[in-house]
Specification:
330 residues; alpha/beta; TIM Barrel; twelve-stranded mixed beta sheet; two-stranded antiparallel ribbon; binds S-adenosylmethionine; binds iron/sulfur cluster
């Protein structure tokens, strides 16, 4: 069986993001509706199924796995067995994206289980605004969580900030100074039209990476980094800091040509592209062939030709993608 996942456009898939739950302790305005109905437990992957999937991917040449959600740290039972994923042969890096609310409690366990790098979401440094954007988040807890992660010595911790006009665009420089001060990285994200949200009009709140970059360049000179990772981010350095500044621009800069990733939703659906519905349901296969890895690997290989060449996002039209980011795994 092929050791590599290659699609019809010659792109090798060596990176997978797995959503371990659709649930979350926050309700960020750009990610979820205020009233959410989450999937019944029976419809989401068990921890054993997540492990099997991770093993299948690594046997197919995947070198990096990012666990996300929803909020991965609210998934019960995950942390007890995380080391089984962290220690998979062939896996170079186990990564996690988290909202940081539980990091004071769990960063030590994450480090021990082999998680190499953390992306931590932080859209505002003002407690009231932070609460409004997350609908119930406690800024102090997240800041303490970031400090706890730094103390554990994770490599290249990165802050993820979604920038929205009329909301937090006036904090771009403050967030950057925060990252510089902590000597961690930061990425500014363009809002994506995933799911129908009711809190704001995305066409009005959209703030492009070019606009964010102009705000930063009013204070700091940015130097493009020679080495760019595959994907939607471009990274820059400043002469006087170790902090890297990233711009994640699914709208303004098409990144599909070198896309190296696929995603698996909490319900076990393999998604070939964030911006399309192309996918295959792996959960029924995992349940029909309980514990067997070959049928899962075969299904993943068979899905590769349906990875589309590119996505199309249009902020003015109704969202094409009706799933929310929390089910997809950001
Ligand atoms: N709960 C974790 C967190 O917030 O970091 C992990 C999951 S969250 C879906 C992953 C990332 O997606 C976060 O950085 C979040 O800001 C981002 N995100 C969520 N909805 C988004 C949207 N509509 N457009 C752009 N980024 C979004
Ligand atoms: Fe939760 Fe992350 Fe979505 Fe915010 S962005 S609601 S923290 S899953």
């Amino acid at each position: 069986m092929s050791k590599q996942l290659i699609d019809d456009f010659g792109r090798t898939v060596d990176y997978v993001r797995i959503s371990v739950t659709d649930r979350c302790d926050f309700r960020c305005v750009y990610c979820m509706a205020e009233e959410m109905t989450f999937l019944p437990r029976a419809e989401i992957m068990s921890i054993e199924e997540i492990e099997l999937l991770a093993k299948a991917f690594t046997e197919l040449g995947v070198q990096r796995i990012r666990l996300t959600g929803g909020e991965p740290l609210v998934r019960r039972g995950l942390l007890d067995r995380l080391g089984n994923i962290g220690n998979l042969p062939g896996l170079k890096e186990l990564l996690m994206t988290t909202n940081g609310s539980q990091l004071v409690r769990y960063s030590k366990i994450l480090k021990k289980a082999g998680v190499k790098r953390l992306n931590i979401s932080l859209d505002s440094l003002r407690a009231k605004r932070f609460r409004a954007m997350t609908r119930n988040g406690d800024l102090d807890k997240v800041l303490a969580g970031i400090d706890a992660a730094i103390e554990q010595g994770f490599q290249r911790i990165k802050i993820n900030a979604v920038v929205m006009k009329g909301s937090n665009e006036d904090e771009v420089l403050d967030l950057l100074e925060f990252a510089r001060d902590k000597q961690i990285d930061i990425a500014f994200i363009e809002e994506m039209p995933l799911g129908n949200i009711d809190s704001h009009d995305r066409a009005l709140s959209f703030c492009s990476s070019d606009e964010v970059r102009a705000i930063i360049e009013s204070r700091h000179e940015l130097h493009a980094m020679a080495h760019q990772t595959a994907g939607p981010s471009r990274y820059f350095r400043m002469a006087d800091s170790t902090t890297r500044v990233g711009f994640i621009s699914p709208h303004s800069h098409n990144f599909c040509a070198d896309c190296n990733r696929v995603r698996v939703t909490a319900s076990g659906r393999l998604l070939l592209c964030l911006g399309n519905e192309h996918g295959v349901d792996l959960l029924p296969i995992m349940r029909a062939y309980k514990g067997q890895i070959e049928p899962v690997k075969e299904a993943i290989i068979a899905a590769m030709p349906s990875k589309p060449e590119k996505h199309h996002f249009d902020l003015k039209a109704e969202p094409q993608i009706l799933r929310f980011m929390n089910t997809t795994g950001g």
